[in-house]
Amino acid sequence: MSAKIEIERRRDLEPIQLSHIGSEGCNFPMETTSTQIKREMPKAKALGASVPDRIGATPLVRLDSVARHLPEYHGLESIKILAKAEWANPGGSVKDRAAAGMVRDAIDRGVLKPGKTVLDASSGNTGIALAMLGSAVGFPVHLAMPANVSPERKRILRAYGAVIDWTDPDKGSDGAILRARELAGNDPERFCYIDQYSNDANWLAHYRTTGPEILEQTEGRVTHFVAGLGTTGTFMGVSRKLKEFSSSIKAINFQPDSAFHGLEGLKHLGTSLVPVIYNPHLADREMQVETEAAYDMARRLARDEGLLVGISAAAAVWASLQIAREEAEAGRSAVIVTVLPDSADKYLSERFWEDE
Ligand code: PMP
Predict the structure, then answer these.
(1) How far is the CA of 346 from the centre of ligand 1 (A)?
(2) Do residues 110 and 149 share a domain?
(3) Do 119 and 235 sit in the same domain of this protein?
(4) Interval 74-100: pLDDT, tens
(5) Owning domain of residue 264
(6) Pocket test for ligand 1, best of 84, 95, 232 (most atoms within 8 A of CB)
(7) What was the pLDDT predicted at 5?
(8) Global pTM value
């Protein structure tokens, strides 16, 4: 099941191979046990790895200090909060997994072939992941993106050589989606429209890699999974895998508490185009996080935990701590796992870092 992908290199037309993220560990059967997972996880490669091969297998970080600093810490000792450090992916975010999965799927289905340009709408990280893969594998990338993304993101995308259509910031990520649809509709011969919001290969990437990694790294002891909703791929894919492993694992998602928010990468579903891949019935619980709470947590994680993470990652820790408090109050022990989608690198110019 090596799932090697071949694509022609644009410049020299030499066939090159993109061996897909976690391909050796994909498609675990429903009855997978943690011992089986260990056996089936990809092995470290002795002689280095290509850029696409380095996607996935991210560390699971234990957050020790952040709970200890809470006034109500007493009682939280039996609760573990663990987080996937997704900035360890080569493009710097969780979206490398989805982008690699969707690109591989498009190649397998024959819709991405030499001469085609990959197109998608993104508020940042998927765009960066596609641009990185385009440069590593050899296909052009065209993105529709709101013009107010951070200057750091703009520079990264320019460095990878992607072409960007900047869309009206007031229309948010939905404005970018509408532009990508328009471009794809006008020139279907030129574009391979990835459409991450409707693409099953998005959540399947997490079902095949992030979910099994969490089971393996917790030795199957995870009790709660917490993730923010953007395209919803992370939440859908990981939750499906974990619930197949044990139906008692709780799947908890969160979104920004209002339409205008600072949680980059996340969507307020009540006022946005709801991603086609989202199924609300999977969630045991839905939470909302305020932007200010996430900013405050981002500063605390940097100062107390040595973790310089992005805003949605800080929101994920805030939501996980809420669950930790409730479990502690109920006298239960818990292993709460969340995802830290990216590091603070792309948000360092934001003013909230200077607040006390
Ligand atoms: N956080 C950040 C920083 C992101 O870029 C994204 C992707 N939009 C998410 C969270 C949410 O991930 P997903 O698209 O898998 O729901």
Answers:
(1) 14
(2) yes
(3) no
(4) 667 789 999 999 999 999 999 999 999
(5) 57-90+206-354
(6) 95
(7) 35
(8) 0.88
